[in-house]
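User: These chains co-purify. Model them together.
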Amino acid sequence: MSITIYVPCDSTAVSIGADRVAKTIAQEALKRNITIQLIRNGSRGLYWLEPMVEVLTDAGRKAYGPVQVSDVASLFDADFVNGGEHPLYLGLTEEIEYLKKQQRLTFARIGITDPISLEDYISHEGYQGLSNALKLSQADIVKAVTDSGLRGRGGAAFPTGIKWNTVLNTPSEQKYIICNADEGDSGTFSDRMVMESDPFVLIEGMTIAGIAVGATQGYIYLRIEYPHAHKALNTAIEKAYAAGYLGDNIKGSGKSFNLEVRLGAGAYVCGEETSLMESLEGKRGLVRFKPPLPAISGLFGKPTVVNNVISLASVPIILDKGGDYYRDFGMGRSRGTLPLQLAGNLKHTGLVELGFGMTLRELLYDFGGGSASGRPIKAVQVGGPLGSYLPESQFDTPLDYEAFAANWTVLGHGGVVAFDDTANMAELARYNMEFCAAESCGKCTPCRIGSTRGYEVMDEIIAGQALDKNIPLLRDLCNTLLNGSLCALGGMTPYPVLSALNHFPKDFGVDDQANTAV
Amino acid sequence: MTELNAMETIVQDIIAALKDKPGALLPILHAVQDKLGYVPSDSVPAIAKALKLSRAEVHGVISFYHYFRDTAPGKQTIHLCRAESCQAMGGKKLEAHVKSTLGIDYHETTADGKFSLEPVYCLGNCACSPAMQIGHDIYGRVSADNFESIITQAEDIA
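Assistant: Joint model of the two components:
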């Protein structure tokens, strides 16, 4: 049997040496006269084990990790090419607890296939969703998505089917599908993983969306910080065109869908959908007033679906296995699965896709393995830079949109950043205000000016100046941002700031419980 | 050909290739910056004219986006992540080390022209924080200990 070895091409794996490991394995095999087929797969998302090298055996794929260049010779000595024992041996990949306990629907292929191989994609159930969609009426495609209970995975959790239905029922000669791939939240990387490790699933999801609502042009608005994803998407799009999965007359159906990647330019606010459309139109990314909704008057004034990468990448499996199949995962009104991203100070950082409902504590300790530093976890920020910090007393909150909202916290895009007890929450609150100031589009006054006043007052608080005046001032300012901002950037910056103040008043120099009410 | 003429030719070629795209301004600015390392203010009138915009509008777009720059960068640009996940893993300490090692603050270029330093808010490398990017290359688990060896290698491949 020929020898097949997998070394991930995912940018995080590469950031800690995967390219060098792959090169060294190829050289060592040549030196030892062993013929190998080296495949650059995506990452399984078990990042503390990256670079994780896999070998195909009769029993299945076996994993070794984390592999450094200096380990390669000893791996060959241990006959790892035939699954030999070695201190870095992790067992059969599929049996690794972290992976085995997951429910991978959107991430079904990720880490398994060669991301830019269309053949691999098709042989792993790719394009079955599109094939089904082509047999359905537009309304029935939208109905399948509505039935699945899928809600926008970018963070706002708006029901995807309702959005699609609005676009479907708004007559227009031209409609658009936009994929919001401006994944700017710290602690999130699930969009990046999809685009780097399974770009075809996003292309397929967008194609289905286009056919469903009658849009013939799609744009992926990708952040400039993701050059690896850019390359993977462009290669995959080119292959999809060549094979008739994009363009005019898709697979002989008479339907057309064209797709292009457009790059952002480092503006966080362009992840807000109306700002994103301004940017796509070639303007400053200023947030628009709503209404009109983008579904009625969006890009270039035309009806537009704007969905996050994960939302669109979840569409193929819904059309493949049915809305009911997807809906049977999850809890309450949060249906299906959420790809959670474990980041920051955790031992086992990575991607965990599971049906909604697990508690944050289970996620942090059963999957995350506790803090990387070995110190107690002090706070966890869920949902990116606009998400609240959760103290230990809130760790039993189930991962569910409504349960989080009830705590004045947000699940957002599923990013989870843990901080140990060396973190100073006042410093973090200052950072949150500074970030808002750096990224504000400047259209509305509360966000534009309030954020600058916010970090100024935080500077005084950190210096211990006039706390009896400055703490109420900070609350008042947050109240203005919360209620007076045009979009979530200004409107939600108070979430991290106030949650830090309310749960960790000592870090702000106050210990007055009466002063800590929301 | 003078340097200015060379720049004008490059910009005109880019404009000709991209101006008919819907929403062409960002693709044009990206192409110019990819080619020249920045968007020279001398290129603004030509871009504005081709897209039937005012120079102020084009300038407004360039200045809105953190990524676009109107001055030449150093030979390599280091994008250092400042966001929460990196902070949770010692990012602030690393930031201080990077600034003192290079002897520059954010948005500055070293005196020898080798490195420019820019802040970035998340590289999506949060599972291996702290992170930074040099060109298209991303580095994870960057520390005060390995920063110098990383930039030395980056210098070699520049």
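The mean pLDDT of chain B is 96.
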